[in-house]
Automatic annotation (TrEMBL):
Every Putative oxidoreductase/dehydrogenase Rossmann-like domain range: 31-157
Protein name: Rossmann-like and DUF2520 domain-containing protein
Annotated ranges, domain DUF2520: 174-300
InterPro entries: 6-PGluconate_DH-like_C_sf, DUF2520, NAD(P)-bd_dom_sf, OxRdtase/DH_put_Rossmann_dom, TM1727-like_C_sf
Disordered as annotated region, ranges: 1-37
PANTHER family to which the protein is assigned, alphabetical: CONSERVED HYPOTHETICAL ALANINE AND LEUCINE RICH PROTEIN
Length: 329
């Protein structure tokens, strides 16, 4: 069930509190223990891509205070200025010096080196919440910072981001893939709920598989839709987005509700002649799309066969057409 802001949460001791309405934190020494942490946190962002500023803006709505962001490119500086106005742009080490909670929102491949560099230079402070948003990694990638006393969390929002304020609204009801040490599970859950999200606990060893599933569903969907729109334009359709919208919306809803039982179309029916015509036209007008069409058609045929939707006697001709499609000139 989706939770709406403001939300009751629990503090680091598990005691009921309302973080949104907590009194302002008084200046004091940084706590070394998570259980001593104040209800409101100062927030920093290392890497002002599409994700970090949106999450920090969402935490700001929940009562936390963004205090610093690091940004290199002009585009990232513009995003920071739009979503986190009046928050200073500083070097990464300075972000860590100012913030109780630091969001590391850099590309996956850059994350291990960033963490090692911050730990080696002494930028990490004991008791500091260090949160990365990579889907690929769990908390082990933060081990260098953890040895320096940081409190590691992996909070990955399962959503595509635009880099604009619309992302903050879209976080409502968004699932987060969460990996955290046992002693920080309450903290991780509270942060996700404050951003309007729903925590889904992912074991450390399952993070790559979890991320592959999301990439398969979301990233490849964008490619498929873009190709479909291009083909419709080539076929003379003036508004391919308007044509595809209801169709794809219904297909997605049916797939989420019914899984493989929602399969329709010529592959699931075993219409080998229709599939052969598709392949011939794609070779003629859009050869770059053929490999993807054939791969998805084979995967669809396999699933349709396994679930009794595609008759075995029709599958042989269909699979023959798909095999011939690779050699079509």
């Amino acid at each position: 069930m989706t939770r709406n802001r403001p939300v009751p949460a629990e503090d680091w001791n598990g005691r009921p509190t309302r973080i949104v309405n907590a009194p302002p934190a008084q200046p004091r020494q940084q706590p070394d223990r998570a259980e001593d942490r104040p209800a409101r946190l100062t927030v920093g962002v290392v890497g002002a891509g599409r994700v970090g500023p949106a999450l920090a803006a969402s935490l700001q709505l929940a009562g936390h205070r963004p205090v610093a962001v690091s940004a290199v490119s002009d585009a990232s500086r513009r995003r920071a200025a739009a979503l986190l106005p009046d928050v200073p742009v500083v070097e990464p080490a300075r972000v860590l010096a100012l913030a109780d909670l630091v969001l590391l929102t850099v590309p996956d491949d850059a994350l291990p080196g960033l963490v090692e560099g911050l730990a080696d230079t002494g930028a990490v402070r004991p008791g500091q919440l260090l949160v990365h948003t990579s889907g690929r990694y769990g908390v082990r990638v933060l081990d260098p910072a953890r040895r320096a006393g940081a409190l590691p969390l992996a909070l990955h929002p399962a959503m595509t981001f635009t880099g604009t304020s619309v992302d903050v609204q879209r976080l409502a009801g968004c699932s987060f893939g969460v990996t955290a040490p046992d002693e920080l599970r309450l903290a991780a859950e509270a942060l996700v709920i404050e951003m309007g999200g729903e925590p889904e606990w992912i074991a450390e060893e399952n993070r790559p598989l979890y991320h592959a599933a999301l990439a398969l569903g979301a990233n490849h969907l964008v490619t498929l839709v873009a190709q479909a729109m291009e083909l419709l334009r080539s076929a003379g359709v003036g508004a391919p987005d308007r044509m595809l919208g209801p169709l794809l919306g219904a297909a997605l809803d049916n797939a989420l509700r019914s899984g493989d039982a929602a399969l329709t179309g010529p592959v699931a029916r075993g219409d080998a002649g229709t599939v052969a015509a598709h392949v011939a036209e794609l070779h003629k007008h859009a050869p770059a799309t053929v490999a993807g069409y054939l791969a998805m058609a084979r995967a669809t045929a396999d699933r349709a066969l396994a679930h009794g939707l595609l008759k075995p006697e029709l599958a042989q001709d269909l699979l023959g057409v798909l095999a011939e499609g690779d050699d079509h000139r």
